[in-house]
Structures are given as C-alpha cells and as structure tokens.
Structures
1.
Amino acid sequence: MKTNSETQTNPFDTPLRVFTCKQTAELLSVTPQIVYSLVRRKKLRPLAGFGRLRFSAAELSRFIAEVK
C-alpha cells in the first residue's frame, strides 16, 4: 500500500508542464500582480507564443533557485 507521501506528485515532475499566472502565483505564495511585476522587471520569463503569461517548470525552478 502506498503512503500519502508516495501518492503526492511534484508539480515540477515533467519539464514540459506549463503553469498559468494564477498557478505560478500560488506556487510562489504571491499575488498574480506580483507575478506580472516580476515579468516586467525581467526576473521571470514567460513562454513565447502564448497570448497570456505561461511559464515552464524549468523557468520556475530556475527562478526559485535564484531567489533562495
């Protein structure tokens, strides 16, 4: 039988996963307005080719490592 920790998945498991602005804000524990501010200040780079802000798991991992 699997324990609770084995059934939980890591949001960064797949490098091709795309996060919306709202999901990114929840992961970073900030408001969506702060995510927009981070993009304007070029601290966080959204994926090209999307009409709205979308972020790759690799970009979020890079940003989190840079902040820590």
2.
Amino acid sequence: MLIKNMVCNMRRIFIICVAMSLAFLSGCQRPYEMEYDFALNRDQLRFTKAESKAYFLVYSKSAWSVEFETEVEWATLSRTEGSGNGQVSVFCQANTSVSRGVNIIVTTSDGTSKKVYLSQEAGFSDGYYIIEDPGVQLLSKGVSVSLSAETNLPEDMFDDITIRIDPAEAEEWVKDVVATPTGISCVVSDYVGTESRQATIGVYFPAAEWDESRVTSFMNVTQSNITPQIELSSEYILDPNGGTVTSIPLEFNWAAEYYTYDLSSHTFGDDSWIASSSYDAETQSLKVTPSRNKSGHPRETIVTCYVKDLEGTVLSQTSAVLTQDIFDGIEPADAVALYEGEKYANCYLIETDQAKIYSFDAKKPDGSLPSENMASAEVLWQNVTCPVDKVLYEDGKVYFRTVSDKSGNTVIVVKDAEGVICWSWHIWVAGTTVGTNAVGTYVFMDRNIGALSYDGKDARGLHFEWGRKDPFPGAVHSDAATSLDRQTVSPDVINTVTEQNGKTIEWTIQNPHSYIAGSDNSGKEDWYHDGNDAKAQNNTLWGDGSEKSVYDPCPYGYRVPSKDALDKLAGALKSGSSFTKYDGVRTKDDNEASLYFPVSGWWQRKTNTLELCNVGTQGRLWSSTPSAANALNQEYYSSYVLHCTSATSCSTQTHVRRWGCNVRCVKIN
C-alpha cells in the first residue's frame, strides 16, 4: 500500500510540472517568430581547409536577397532570396591554396543591407612570391621595366591580386603594372626633375582578413637625372695557370639593361699576357682570360672600363688592378715522356734527382685503359723525402713533377669522377743510375725495387704481397731492433685489413695501400679471393715464372724473376760471400761487379699486428713461381722466395703469399 501511494504522488508532481512549463512557453516566441525589422544571427563564418558547410539565419519582416560581394568559385549559397525569417546555408570547397575570404551581402526590399564575412583557412603554409633584385635605379629617360619572380602560388590566384603604388602621386609616372607567376612589369615615364623620385609597388595576394601571413611582395623604383657610371672593386687576382676565365662583375648606378649604352669598351695597361677579354651583357661582367704565368715573377696590369653613348663619347670610366702570381704547376708541353713508343709498366724508374716534369700514358702494362672514365690524378703516398710535388691528369696522360735533390718512392693514382681509384703506378726516383748484376744467363737489377742505392741501408727497397703490383714501405733503420711495427715505419701509408673475404683483384686495384694481413698469425691464408671462394688460387698473377703479367711490379724491360733465376742468384750469394748483421750478404757477380743482398726482413702478421720482422738478420726476395698447396693444409698457398740468413744460408723455399717480401727484377731476354 505504501509503494502504491508513492507512485500516485509522483504522477501528480509530473503532471503539475508539465502544466507549468506549457504555461510558461505559451508566453514566449521561437527565434523565427521574434520581432525584428531586419537582423542576422552572425556576422562571420570561418571554415577549415576541408570541404565543409555552415549556415546563418535571417530575421526580416520583408523580402530579401543574398549574394556574394564578388563572384567566387570556391563557395556557393543554398538560396539567393527569401521573405520573412529564413536560413541560408553556405557550402565551401576544400582549399589547397592560401587563405581566402568574401563578404556575403543580404539586402531587404527597402534597400537595407547587412553582411556576413565568409573565410577559409589556407590549404598550405609558406606561400611566397619573390621578386628578383626588386630595387631598380633608372635614369631620366622612361623605360619599360621587367623583373623576374619566383612563386609557389597557383596561377589562378594572380587574377585576384591587388596592386598598390606608394606614394599615391607615383601613380602618375608608374603605370601598367602587371604581376604574373614569372615576373612583374611596369612602365615608367620620362623624368625632367633634378631630385630623385621613388615609388614602391606592392603586390598583395588574396587572403582572409584575419590572416597575418598574407603573401605580399614589393618592388622599388628610383628615377634620377644622373650620369651613368661603372664601379669596380680595387683589385682582382687572376689564375696563374692561365686559360681560366675570370669574371669581373661591373656594378652600375643605374639599371643598365634598360638603356642603350656601349659598355663593352675596356683597355689594359699591359695586355701582353691577357689572352682574351670580352663584356658579357647577360651577367653584366667583364670576362678576362690570362695566359699562363711562366715569367718567373708576379705580374699586374690596369683594366679600365668605359661607359660610352652611341656616338662613342665617354660618359664615365673606372679602373681596377689585375694581378697574377707565378705559375707553380705542370705545363704538359714541358713534360718529358718516360718512355717513347708503346712501353708501359706499373713502375716507372727515374735515374736522376733533378727537378723535371715527366709524363706517361695512363695505361696498364698490356696497353689497355684501366677505365673509360678517368678524371684526375693525385699522390696516394710517398716516403718522407717527397720526391714528387705536383701531379696532373690530362687527355689520357699522367704528368708529375719531381723535386730537385730528392730521391724516393711515390705511388700515383688515377681516379674517376666519383673518386674511385682506377689504377696506380709506382714512381721510383732512384736518383742515380741503376746498374745490373750478371748471374749465369740472368741479368738482375743491382738493387731491390724502390732502393735508392745498390749498397747499405738505402738498398733495402720496398715490399710486396705476392701477386700484387703495388708496393709497401720498407725499413730505413734497423741497428737496434729486428722488428718494427707499421706505426714506426709508415704510420700514414699502410692500411691494415684483416678480413680476407671479398678482397679480389678489383678490390686491391681500388685499395693499393691496404695490406691484407689475414685474420690470424699463422699466415696460412692467401690474400687472394675470387669473390666466391676464399680457397681459390690464382697462380698467374705474376706470370707463373714464364712471362710478365699485367700485375708485375717491375719497370719496363724487367719482370719478377722465376724460381730458376733465384736459384742461380742463391748460388752466387753463397759463393765467396760475407754476411754482416744489420747489413746483408756481399759477393761478386759473374762480371766481378759488387753483388749485394740486404737483409730487409718482411711484413707479416705477428702477435696480432702487422710487423716488419727480422730486419737486419734475414731477407727474402719473391719469385713469380707458385708452389703447390701445402699437403697438410690446402689453405696454405705459397710461392718461392730466395731466403738468406747468412752468407752460407741462401736458398729458395716456399713462403706464404700474404707476407710482404722484396722484389729484385730480372731483365727480360
């Protein structure tokens, strides 16, 4: 019973509330029924860049019409007229341009109007219209001016731009302003005044009224009754190499491109070394090409530029100093060919220490080109004496200049346009004549490759991994230590590579100063890799004891000796010879000439680093003859060397190929 009474009471309360609400509402008007002569419920509509729709309400006691203040294509109205109270819907397309806005005008039948400002945010940011060199200095004669411009704004926006000229009176002499996506132009009238006059042309692109990032651009025009003049900097430095065009910009006190004057006239105080000169109207500069300065002293001249009218009268002139330092490079015409005819090698021997320019064809020993894309040459490394100071690649030839009284070794590389090494050559500046030693039917050089003397410590020479054409430095001192690490011998020359995989012939050509040391101290690995199999073997890299190969490191006319040749040399060294520690083996050849074998040691991986071992106690010379793989370990590929430890211990034996030994070349019969 209690619950039933509660439900009845709640019903009574609900009925009373509804009755009171209806009574209240009966005394109110809905918005459409409110008493207005004419009103709008809002004065602006602001849309995002996306396609969208909104509306506004019109309150009026009479008929009315609605339209855009200016015609637009990006928005439409749901209706164009109405009577009494009504709703107007507005549809906006998606915006991919700058912000935009337009007034919507609502007008009643008695002519009263109100407006709603419709706007839409930009579809992208950072719009621009950049006028190139927007400041124009004109003379008194009127001209048509045209300046280039760049923009990222759509072309249809240029139909709605606003042009303003400031000050307003400048509109009398600046007319016909046109702005397009590619530039801006105007016509400037003649001027007879004495003071200069100025005008600023503003280009304003359409945008919403609230948009502070509205795209604008300005062009300044100054017109004066002045004498046209040229301005130059005080001094210009010309290339001592000659043949290079130097561009000397001419500065004007007026926009020279709009007036007809003779600007090409110029003279030199001394034109004997000026190969050519001309005025370039497009860049408004004087192009001067000097000859190469081989005079032995710096030189200079005065250049004078003139402004002339069409009758040839000089209106103004200005001068500047042109200087040129002494040419300190390579003149190909002065070069001496290292070999005449088709004589090519990986090593070029120079038997003098005089300063001179040399050249050789950038070809392999077989006469083929390393690459069709060779572009430049440079020194890859050289020993501390630095016998070469200039290098040039030009028209398929390598040119280099040696320094007076400097002997030594240099490796020159030729690179392609991407900086990849195409090939390398060893320049051996011995400084003196390299003699020979006759041993049986063989004629050997009297020193190792790279040695600067046939005797003493300078006779030790350079070292090679078997089968590679490029040398590595050797020891220059050894009286106190028999092992030297690479940091002691040549810290800036040898790059050590321990990983063997992928170290193909092509890789060694592109990395001639990288020593492939192997991944362990056993020396069992051959440095060679065919790209697929680390156990692959190439026994012909140095000609297999029979002929000179394309990777042979010897100069033209010589090759790496065969095992048979080294057997004969070993016999000569054991016959009547003497051995001195830190020096080497001494004896006589078949012609009673001095025969010297320095104990230069060899490069090998030892205690996990690359070391030049046994310097002053042992020496080894490579042969071109390979030996069979070690029967106990098929990875142990080797070749024959001449090994000497004393006067009575000189013999040929096998040696692992990735250790770096000396080479003594034998003459090709």
3.
Amino acid sequence: MVLAGVALIASFFLAGRLDSTATNSEDPGGFNVPRLETTTGGGEETSQAGPQDTTLKLTVPSMSRIEDDEIPSTDGGDEASLKKYAAIHLEGTGFPWQEEANVYIAGHRLGYPNTESWLTFWDMNKVGVGDEIFVTDSDGTEYTYKVFKELTVGPSDTSVTSTEPGKNILTLQTCTLPDYSKRLIVQAELVQTVDARGGPSGRERTEADRGRSPQRTPRAEEGRAVAWQLPESA
C-alpha cells in the first residue's frame, strides 16, 4: 500500500521540464505546468532586486512539518530534489521579491519514506483562509503571505500557475486524498516584506494599501480532514 501510494503521489509532479519551445501536450500525464519562456540576458525573474541564490525557506504554522524548510528552485522532474527536500519551487514560476508573480511550491502528500519529503504536506488541508505563510529568501528577507483561497483542481488544470495582475501570490500544491487523483491548492497574497535588518522593505504590501479584500472561498477539503489525520505510527 505504501509503495503504491508513493508511486501515485510522485506522478503529480510535472514530468516535463520548463523551457521556451515545449508545449503542454508533451507532458506524459501528471500535473502539467505551462511551458514558460525564459528571458535572455539574465531573465526578468531575477532582475527585480532579488538575490542570486534563489533558494527559499518555507514556514507554514498550520502545518506540523513545515518550519524553515529549504525549498530549491528546480523543475518538476528532479526526483533527487523531490526526495531530498520538503518541497520544490517550480523553476520558471515567480519569486517573492517580484512585483507581480506566482511563487509556485509543490510538495508530496505522502512522499518517500526515510527522506525529507515524507508526509511533509500531509496536513495541508488544515491550512485555512486568513492563515499566514512565511517565505524567506537567501538574503534573509522575510515575506508574509495571507491565505485567500483554497480549491481542488484536476491534474491537467494549469490555471493555478498563472499570475494575477498587480499581485505577488504564493501557491502551494499537493495531492488530494485518498487516491491522489486531484490537486489540493492553497493560494496566499503577499501582505508584508521585512528585510534582514528587521524593517519593512520598500515593497511592503498590505491589503489596506490596495483598498481591497482578498476573495474568500470555502475550505477545499472540509469534512474530510478528520478522516485523514496523520497516522499515529508515522
């Protein structure tokens, strides 16, 4: 049962790589991410005052296993990273320091036993609207996100990787239970940026500054969380 679950959960990570010439049809199943064009001469992604080392750290207080976990930026076919780390930032998607971006992080619901991936996103269904999520870049700048949406999508729905005009959002992805056939998605909006010296950066955002409230949606797995609590033996 465990090995079967591992095989199923592994399949949702994008088998294809992000490049400028491929198309979605080349993904042999699994959860597809749009093929994103890269910009020559440094690229737009790293040009907006971001650190050269794009490794991130992720803390989700609502999740028992995600605290200051290192998140590398890599493609979804990098199985070595999927085993070595709690989650990965999908190469070709945005970063916290960008004005407009979708910072897309995917983690295993079950994962690989005896690795850092094991059960890391098991309790992602406990993350609720209004909860905070913290991301830190390699320079020590901390970005606070507030959850505004939870939803479940099919394995071929790539809309959740899109950016939203004028927003920097964070997207977390894992599989649904019990059969891992769909994708549980949590999205959060950047509300505060604090640099390594402890002060707000010039890019600090608040909902009040923008004069709008994030959209509220119901819990994506409400009613199923109790049936799928973390096993005591794990």
